[in-house]
Structures are given as structure tokens and as C-alpha cells.
């Protein structure tokens, strides 16, 4: 595991975008696993800028998003579909048919999970999986539990996750109770994982995830078993590392 700590958000954003740009320059057909939340926004901003400057193209890449809320139409302002359109996918040259995200409004959610896994399977391995980290150690929406799922599945969100994400909604009660998420098995199958964490409020979970016991109580701790993880931290998030 390669842990890099940055003094400024700008340096961190440029480093993250540089890794993704470098991958696309050597492998334009790369399969990217993408994340939502506040954490990747600055990296996406840098990628959009690099694309504007003609330094990187997404035209042959494929994107798979980690997760989506159940019950939100793609056009809902807080859906992860909208998030990705506004922050990256709608701003670069990736064709829409190469962008995938689970549908949270599918009439049969189990069938939707199976469809998403089949699509992932067809594309082989994800080349680079970008991840943020939940305060409770979740990756994607894989919440702490006695067991974790390998493939895409329906998850009931923890109250702490719902309140952490309430800032994206008008009222806290509008935060959906459930989501579809890629499983930990799919995440760990990626060739490379880029975990990004910012802020003092995540320093404790960063320490547990990267240096604590490997346990399903902290899903991100399973990343310790992966052969190629790069972690980008700001100095606050890395403040409790030993
Ligand atoms: O980056 P944030 O907003 O702190 O969110 C943390 C994590 O929770 C999620 O929003 C749930 O999937 C992730 O996308 C994100 O990595």
C-alpha cells in the first residue's frame, strides 16, 4: 500500500487526476470505477480541466459507478447519475453508452444487481477503482456488518451514513433508506485501487482502515489485502497514522 499525504487540496487533486490521466494516456480503453461524494470532486475538476486542455480523452474509456440511491430518478438533483453528469461524465468526451451506474428505480432491484454484475463481467477487470471512505469505514455503500457481499447488492443505509449525506438533500428525511452498491468482491478485483480521504473528521477511520485489524466491521480495512492500493490523504486525514 502506497500512502501519500499532501499539504494542500490542490496538490492532492492534481496527484489524483494525474494518476487517472496517466492511465488513460497509456490505456485509452481503460475501465474506470468511479465514486461520488465530496471527496472526488476536486479530482474530477482537474480531470475536466486536463480534458479541456486536450491532455486527456475519455472517448474510448468505460466508466462504472460504485452505487446509486434506491428510489431516485436519474434526473433527481441528488442522484449519483446527476452527480456524475455535473462533475465529470457530462463534461468530458465519454460517450453515454460507455457510462454505467446501477439503476435505483429498476422495478426488480435484484435483477438490476445481476444485470450490473453481468456488465462488469463482460468488461473483465476494472483497471482503476477510485474510492472515498465513509466515516464508519464504508467503501461504496458497503456498510460495516458481520458479513460483506461480493457482488452488486441492495443495502440498507446506516443512519449515520444517511445523516452524513443529508447535506445533498433539502431535508434529512429525503435521504433514501436504501442503495444499490457494487460489492467488496468487485472492488477488490480491480487492478488498482485509488483511495482518497480528506479531513480531520476521517483521521480515526483512516487509521483503523489502513493500520487496524482486517475486519468486516470496517469494510475499507479489506483494502489491506489488495496488492496495488494507492492512498491519497490530506494532512488532516492522515493525522493519526502511526
Ligand atoms: O466523500 P464523502 O462525501 O465524505 O463520502 C464518503 C463516501 O460515501 C459515499 O458517498 C457512499 O458511496 C461514497 O461515494 C464516498 O466515498
UniProtKB/TrEMBL annotation:
Q: Which reaction does it catalyse?
A: alpha-D-glucosamine 6-phosphate + H2O = beta-D-fructose 6-phosphate + NH4(+)
Q: Which UniProt keywords apply?
A: Carbohydrate metabolism, Hydrolase
Q: Does the keyword Aminoacyl-tRNA synthetase apply?
A: no
Q: What is its EC number?
A: 3.5.99.6
Q: Which family does it belong to?
A: Belongs to the glucosamine/galactosamine-6-phosphate isomerase family. NagB subfamily.
Glucosamine/galactosamine-6-phosphate isomerase domain boundaries: 17-226
Q: What does this protein do?
A: Catalyzes the reversible isomerization-deamination of glucosamine 6-phosphate (GlcN6P) to form fructose 6-phosphate (Fru6P) and ammonium ion.
Uppermost EC category: hydrolase
Task: List, from the UniProt record, the residues annotated as the active site of this protein.
Answer: 67, 136, 138, 143
Gene behind this chain? nagB
Organism equals Paenibacillus elgii
- TM helices/strands, residue ranges: none
Q: What is this protein called?
A: Glucosamine-6-phosphate deaminase
Supply the CDD domains for this chain: GlcN6P_deaminase (cd01399)
Q: Name one GO biological process term.
A: carbohydrate metabolic process
What Gene Ontology cellular-component terms does the record carry?
cytoplasm
Pathway-wise, it operates in:
Amino-sugar metabolism; N-acetylneuraminate degradation; D-fructose 6-phosphate from N-acetylneuraminate: step 5/5
User: Which one of the record's GO molecular function terms can you name?
Assistant: identical protein binding
Amino acid at each position: 500500500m502506497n500512502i501519500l499525504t499532501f499539504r494542500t487540496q490542490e496538490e492532492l487533486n492534481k496527484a489524483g487526476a494525474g494518476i487517472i490521466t496517466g492511465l488513460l494516456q497509456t490505456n485509452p480503453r481503460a475501465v474506470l470505477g468511479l465514486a461520488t461524494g465530496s471527496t472526488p470532486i476536486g479530482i474530477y475538476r482537474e480531470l475536466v480541466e486536463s480534458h479541456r486542455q486536450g491532455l486527456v480523452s475519455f472517448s474510448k474509456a468505460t466508466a462504472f459507478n460504485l452505487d446509486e440511491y434506491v428510489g431516485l430518478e436519474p434526473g433527481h438533483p441528488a442522484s449519483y447519475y446527476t452527480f456524475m453528469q455535473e462533475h465529470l461524465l457530462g463534461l468530458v468526451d465519454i460517450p453515454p453508452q460507455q457510462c454505467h451506474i446501477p439503476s435505483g428505480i429498476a422495478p426488480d432491484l435484484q435483477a438490476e444487481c445481476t444485470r450490473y454484475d453481468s456488465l462488469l463481467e463482460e468488461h473483465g477487470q476494472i483497471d482503476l477503482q477510485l474510492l472515498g471512505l465513509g466515516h464508519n469505514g464504508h467503501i461504496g455503500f458497503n456498510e460495516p456488518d458481520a458479513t460483506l457481499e461480493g457482488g452488486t447488492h441492495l443495502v440498507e443505509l446506516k443512519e449515520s451514513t444517511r445523516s452524513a449525506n443529508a447535506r445533498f438533500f433539502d431535508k434529512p428525511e429525503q435521504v433514501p433508506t436504501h442503495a444499490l452498491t457494487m460489492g467488496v468482491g468487485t472492488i477488490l478485483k480491480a487492478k488498482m485501487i485509488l483511495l482518497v480521504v480528506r479531513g480531520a473528521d476521517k483521521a480515526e477511520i483512516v487509521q483503523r482502515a489502513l493500520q487496524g485489524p482486517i475486519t468486516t466491521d470496517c469494510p475499507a480495512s479489506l483494502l489491506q489485502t489488495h496488492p496495488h492500493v494507492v492512498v491519497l490523504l490530506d494532512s488532516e486525514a492522515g493525522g493519526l497514522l502511526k
